[in-house]
Request: fold
Amino acid sequence: METTCVRLQSATVDVIIKTHPFAEILYWGAHLSDFSPQDVATLERPVANGKLDVDAPVTLMAEPGHGLFGSPGIEGHRSGLDGSPVFTTVHCEQHDGSLTLLSEDTRAGLRLQSEISLDASGVLKIRHGLTNVRAGAWQVDRLAVTLPVAERAQEVMAFHGRWTREFQPHRVALTHDSFVLESRRGRSSHEHFPALIAGSTGFSEMQGDVWGAHLGWSGNHRMRCEVKTDGRRYMQAEALYLPGEMALGEGETLWTPWLYASHSANGLNGMSQQYHRFLRELVIRFPENKPRPVHLNTWEGIYFNHSPAYIMQMAEDAAALGVERFIIDDGWFKGRNDDRAALGDWYLDTQKYPDGLKPVIDHVKNQGMEFGIWVEPEMINPNSDLYRAHPEWVLALPDYPQATGRHQLVLNLNIPAAFDYLLERMSWLLGEHDIDYVKWDMNRELVQPGHNGKAAADAQTRQYYRLLDTLRTRFPDVEFESCASGGGRIDYGVLTRCHRFWPSDNNDALERNAIQRGMSYFFPPEVMGAHIGNRHCHATFRQHSIAFRGLTALFGHMGLELDPTNADAGEREGYRHYAALYKKWREVIHSGTQWRVDMPDATTQVQGVVSQDKRQALFSVSQLAMPDYSLMPPLRVPGLEASARYRITLLDHPNIQLTGEGGHTMRKLPAWMTGTQTVSGAWLMQAGMSLPVLDPESAILIGFERV
Reply:
């Protein structure tokens, strides 16, 4: 069969795929202004001495049988046999921007279906389906998606983290060997967000070639970026299977999670903007397409101390501040007075709520707000009626002790009776109460997850998806938030089923600047919960001004995490001010093009958004620590219309004052701050504007309006 090439193209990205006799990506990069299939002949590789006498391709499945000595895309066997499949393309079907490839290895008894699409946004979406077509189970040890990247990709950027400090970026050189990122915690995890970014040396927000890859999967995963000894590089992503976890019977098919990949020739901003556009056009769907409402969540305000009368007073005070959605957090169900008991007993605590939830919900609604509630359905406390009745419902391997986390174990959703119990209790909660919003938490990792004596982490994730899918079908107008101790379950797999993420349990504005920036590489602001917390942060005990807290929460889906009834007059006025500022700008923030700006050092962080028509722009400058230099360089404002003129306005700021000798702040303000002037977009983008000297842990907000 002769060699055939397929071209998938968008306005910014092209992918050239060799389909026969096997599937191999020959080019993934910037859009080609002209291309002919015979052009690929220039990439035919020589065969070096000291190697095999034939070329070894890096195919979509990266089979070792081709002579690939790096990380395989498939590993498994049939009782020790059929362990080195090599797939040959038997059918190819292209429709616009999508390609379906069917490949077989008749000797191993395996069939492979590869689905590839390139969206108009430039995001490449790919997955594999492996089918066993022969009698006898085929044990799957690994099944990955492999994507080549250009040899100029010399660095890898990934994200590490921990509870209350998620999405922290780091870089390693990609010159030899491989970089591997794994999560075995049963969720996408605080520690290892399932994404890698490979790029040219020194790539930055505004410059460089970058290739991003994100695995849309909420369970165990492995991601790799590898350099072959011949200099070729590739990225690999897969669900990570525990020993013995995955076996295919005859006729059964296993699909990899979707891998979402993005190339940008214009640095990290270009990559992010492609991901944001893809999500907005194809994934994110809000009931009634309404603006993202200002939240108030009760957790850091009252914790487990629920009193209906006090909560109704909180609701009145919240509404007066401009809150549009009021959420009751943990503590509303039977026996839940601390985190040591009652998970699993999803019945109302009639001692706390003798008249039921309805009077509270009605009161919230009468204040003009939506009502939300917290749940953690996948968990069970040993001190609960459910555990005492069904200890066998715990997700565990038999005869091993189970370590608790936050005093809780995990409910085995693979047991039909346990699944049905949760479905019935959640349907009671959502069906018999006027609930608009559910904050769905998951506060424990999976340790030795087992079902019927076998590992069951992958199966547990799929059952979680099924439960959430069923509830969304039954209650299509209810919005769901993915919260797993904060940022423990954030990925595109769960985003297809929810409407909002809680990035971190840490509301410290200083920490949130880094956390939210890290999350912004792959997620737009409208799905990123960003709350103004107490003046005294409950996670770090730092104190920050209301201005710093308010401006930090602005570039997300804003909310409050506190008790408004207890707040003093100054704090209340601050909450009211920033809720109003958010409402004024949320349409631009949640639909515009987001930008992160390179600054000389990490002490100053600049981010912003430009409306789609480029009529308005909003940028914040956050001074996180003492800067290296006494003056900041001019801020070059990206994304504006070069031929237009813009009026610059200082929209929000701390009390910037001129000082005499010894003061850290300024003796003179930048000229644009002291008068009204208009400036060309070209000048602002290329020459820029001077910034004031800011104190550490403060921020300003600058608006631009086309005139």
